[in-house]
Specification:
With 360 residues, the protein is mostly helical. The chain folds into three domains: 3-93, no CATH class; 151-273, no CATH class; 277-358, no CATH class. Helices cover 69% and strands 0% of the residues. It is extended, with a radius of gyration of 28 Å.
Length: 360
């Protein structure tokens, strides 16, 4: 086939795809008008269109897997996308007050200067909130569902084993020496393997002592190295060359023991064990979704706007969790206390708030 014919074929294919895309967009808009109210903000309409497009692609992938018998590496579950679409619809259709919710988000002045530069009012604020909701739901889906007792027991088991390992290593000098260079040797081996795959001839000395595999020559002799080592003015990190940054990384790896890494990790585990449960009340019928969403939404709105938007949070959380009846603003506040716990039964009772309580 001649090059001109190839170009013509590509152009024809692109023209066909463009027509199909326009047809899909028109169909998506008809669907949108059926399920979303006319006042729906443009960012939500845009997200809804994108989700419909994702659902179309997911269904095509599903059919392709069925016909070919091969699994896609990046397969999207159509049911998951359908759940996302249903949530987007609820964010507008769940309650007559949802329009006011989005108006509040779009018009409330941003309190902190940092967020003023990152989050605009109007559509910018609505896009921000949509991203936050997606992030909250993604975080919730990946978090373990453990009761406080089970979590404490699991953490204690890991900490005890790590502390016993540290103690045993400290009591054996030879093992301690091995641990001091283990991290550098591990990364050095990775470096040697990569370079061998690229066709480089590896010297026997490097293979014998892999922690020096990617060492730099005369690292203490060059004037710039002396400055970095503290014998002169130290430039700003961002002004360092890639080579100087690499030298710093190499030196840090050289003097970092796995004992240090293990001790640091144990400290992080202890700190995490002393923090509240990431998903409170996992034994609830919703797996702890409602308390998690309320606390996360409240923290974000309070951080950006400088005040709790309890009514807004109540309706957003109710829509996300698809409660039979919306929560009142007073029903949200107990979730925000450190000792505040509400059972599923209490949630059902407190969700019967009056419409007058829904004002921000």
């Amino acid at each position: 086939m001649e090059p001109e014919e190839d170009t013509a074929s590509v152009e024809q294919w692109m023209a066909v795809e463009e027509r199909r895309e326009k047809q899909r967009r028109r169909r998506y808009e008809r669907i949108r008008k059926r399920y979303l109210p006319d006042w729906t903000p443009a960012p939500i309409v845009g997200q809804y269109h994108e989700q419909l497009c994702s659902l179309h692609s997911a269904r095509i992938e599903n059919r392709w897997e069925t016909l070919s018998g091969q699994k896609s590496l990046f397969r999207t579950n159509p049911r998951w996308v359908e759940g996302e679409i249903a949530r987007t619809i609820r964010l507008c259709q769940y309650n007559p007050e949802m329009k006011k919710v989005w108006e509040t988000i779009a018009t409330t002045p941003i309190a902190h200067d940092l967020f003023k530069r990152l989050i605009l009012t109007g559509d910018g604020a609505i896009k921000w909130m949509l991203r936050e909701i997606d992030g909250i739901m993604s975080a919730f889906s990946s978090m373990p569902r453990l009761t406080a007792a089970a979590r404490n027991k699991s953490f204690a088991k890991v900490i005890s084993a790590a502390e016993n390992l540290l103690k045993a290593i400290e009591e054996c000098g030879e093992v301690g020496s091995l641990m001091n260079t283990a991290l550098a040797d591990f990364i050095g081996n990775r470096n040697l393997n990569a370079r061998a795959m690229w066709g480089e001839k590896i010297l026997a000395g490097s293979a014998w002592c892999p922690r020096f595999a990617f060492d730099h020559v005369d690292r203490y002799g060059a004037p710039e190295s002396i400055e970095i080592l503290g014998y002169g003015p130290i430039p700003d990190w961002h002004a360092w060359s890639a080579e100087d940054k690499f030298r710093w990384l190499h030196d840090e790896i050289q003097r970092t023991s796995l004992m240090d890494v293990l001790s640091f990790s144990v400290g992080r585990i202890c700190d995490a064990g002393n923090t509240p449960l990431p998903v409170a009340q996992p034994g609830r019928s919703d797996g702890g979704l409602l308390p998690f969403v309320i606390r996360e939404l409240s923290a974000r709105t309070n951080g950006v706007y400088g005040k709790p938007l309890d009514s807004t949070v109540a309706l957003l959380a109710s829509a996300i969790a698809d409660l039979p009846e919306p929560l009142s603003r007073d029903a949200v506040r107990p979730y925000l206390r450190k000792d505040g716990k509400k059972t599923a039964r209490a949630t059902r009772k407190s969700s019967r708030g009056t419409k007058s309580e829904q004002s921000s």
